[in-house]
């Protein structure tokens, strides 16, 4: 992963990321006993690399980034970074891939990936009920 990427100021997110970097793998690092993927995004304004650990939603080598922010009314900061800079690095286990993110706004493809997201992390369904915004999702391939 990127040696100059910034860690999250959020304590538990920073701890997860530090553990992944220390171990060299995402294996064994979980949220609510669910696996995660460590993404590296590029800041929309700063251009700085930033680590973003998210729930693992994967199908046939493609990954999903879910901008839930726990059902908050606003998007997470990383959402704007990915919109501006869709080239994203994903670390799953020890495997690191360079991928391109594409936002899914509606339709069958979005519905399919949303179902996979909820299956991977059921609280996503509850988060959607907490907010008026449609929780954005990006497929990375």
What does this structure look like?
The structure is a single chain. The chain has helices at residues 11-23, 77-84, 108-120, 123-130; strands at residues 30-31, 34-42, 49-55, 58-59, 62-66, 87-92, 95-104, 137-140. With 141 residues, the protein is an alpha+beta fold. The protein has one domain (11-140): Electron Transport, Fmn-binding Protein, Chain A (Pnp Oxidase, Chain A), CATH 2.30.110.10. The chain is globular.
Distance between the termini: 18 Å
Q: What class do helices, strands and sheet pairing give?
A: alpha+beta
- Biggest sheet record: 8 strands, antiparallel
For CATH, the homologous superfamily is named as Electron Transport, Fmn-binding Protein, Chain A
Mean pLDDT reading: 93
Poorly predicted ranges (pLDDT <50, ≥5 residues)?
none
Please give the count of helices: 4
Spatial shape: globular
Helix content: 25-40%
CATH topology: Pnp Oxidase, Chain A
Work out the number of β strands: 8
Strand content: 25-35%
| Total domain units | 1
CATH architecture: Roll
Topology order in helix (H) and strand (E) letters: HEEEEEHEEHHE
Radius of gyration: 14 Å
Q: Supply the CATH class.
A: Mainly Beta
């Amino acid at each position: 992963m990127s040696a100059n990427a910034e860690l999250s100021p959020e304590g538990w997110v920073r701890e997860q990321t530090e553990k992944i970097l220390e171990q060299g793998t995402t294996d064994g690092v979980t949220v609510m006993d669910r696996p995660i993927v460590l993404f590296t995004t590029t800041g929309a304004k700063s251009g700085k690399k930033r680590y973003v650990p998210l729930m693992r939603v994967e199908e046939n080598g493609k990954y999903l980034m879910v901008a839930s922010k726990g059902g908050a009314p606003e998007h997470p900061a990383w959402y704007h970074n990915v919109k501006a800079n869709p080239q994203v690095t994903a670390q799953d286990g020890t495997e690191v891939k360079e991928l391109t993110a594409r936002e899914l706004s509606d339709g069958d493809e979005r519905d399919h990936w949303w179902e996979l997201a909820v299956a991977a992390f059921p609280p996503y369904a509850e988060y959607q009920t907490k907010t008026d915004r449609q929780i954005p999702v990006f497929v990375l391939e």
